[in-house]
Fold this sequence. Notes:
Layout: E1 2-5, H1 11-22, E2 29-33, E3 38-42, H2 47-56, E4 61-65
Amino acid sequence: MRFHVSNMNCGGCAKGVTRAVQGLDGDVKVDVDLSSREITVRGAVDPSRVVAALRQAGYEARALGA
Length: 66
């Protein structure tokens, strides 16, 4: 699953985003691309839960698809 995180713009943000998503499931893999402000999430987690976790952590996110 891919997500656009509009306010992710530094390494600290990337760590925060990764922490928020992995808080849902420790086995989830998160790849961050700061230049495009996108993350790729691999694992058994619902996209709506990913968006909700990111919003709770202060990041605006939207799903882009698989």
